[in-house]
Amino acid sequence: MNIHPLFGKQSNYDPVQTILRLATVLLFAGRAWQHLFWDAPFRALLWDQDIMEGIILSLRGGTWQEFVTSENTDRFIRILTLSFGFFYSVMAMLSLFVSKGMRKLTWLYVLSSFFLAFLAFLYCKEKFYHMGQFFEYAIQILLPVLFIYRTTGRIEPSKLTLFLKVATALTFSAHGLYAIGFYPQPGVFIDMAIQIFNMSEPHVKIFLKVAGVLDFVISILIFIPRVSKYALLYAVVWGGLTALARTWAYFELDFIMQSLHQHLYQTLYRVPHMLVPLAALFISIYPMKRRTAR
After folding, report:
1. Which of 82, 54, 80 has its CA nearest to residue 67?
2. Cα separation of 19 and 7, whole Å?
3. Among 124, 137, 132, 118, residue whose Cα is nearest residue 27
4. Interior angle at CA 62, CA 60 and CA 67, nearest 5
5. What is the pTM assigned to this prediction?
6. What is the SS3 assignment for 24?
7. pLDDT per residue over 207-247, tens digit each?
């Protein structure tokens, strides 16, 4: 009996495919929510005078000051942001139904990964080109391509597992660079921990350093066969908690809808940080032959 594509066929149920589909849908939904209702860091590039002044003035003339203060510029950035939001919305809906026979749609997922990589670059630029900031989004960048290749049956479980582990290791180790203080510990990390655990700031900073060290340890252990399952399980739990923290820390019962609207989208596009290692864990526990949901 057929059921909704999100869950695959009951007679040939593939939990890995289900997990990757759910992760992809939530990733696109979270990014769509962000771009449609909030903002994206396009100004980090478009308002960089050193990079953009020559290009912009050759296209529109005038002065740089006129460009950055123009209402038309602000309108263009808003339209650009909304356009990306619409694209991610379409991809979220498409990912609910895409199936094995839809190989021609692969280019859309490759384009999605490119857009997500560009978004990661913009965040990296905002952080003074800290490469850790870019690689913190490794799971999000690689997920659309891994999902479509798994869906259309063009990647073996062993190769998929390797890519899932590499994405997990890059994301967790990059996160760890901030937690241990290699880069300045983000104020948002400290604020969230204080809100959730009601700890003092000095204790929070110690807690973050310990968590950062564990991020590095896990990023190594997931490649060691005898302990990889336990390391992946830790990554699932920690990835889920850090995703949920974005909403949990700032949730207010008196303003439920407002709190969710302001913060839930950040949780949605980080849930793949839990689901991607979960997919790798399922493959490790239940080795499967080359198959996909139909």
Report:
1. 54
2. 9
3. 137
4. 75
5. 0.92
6. helix
7. 999 999 999 999 999 999 999 999 999 999 999 999 999 89
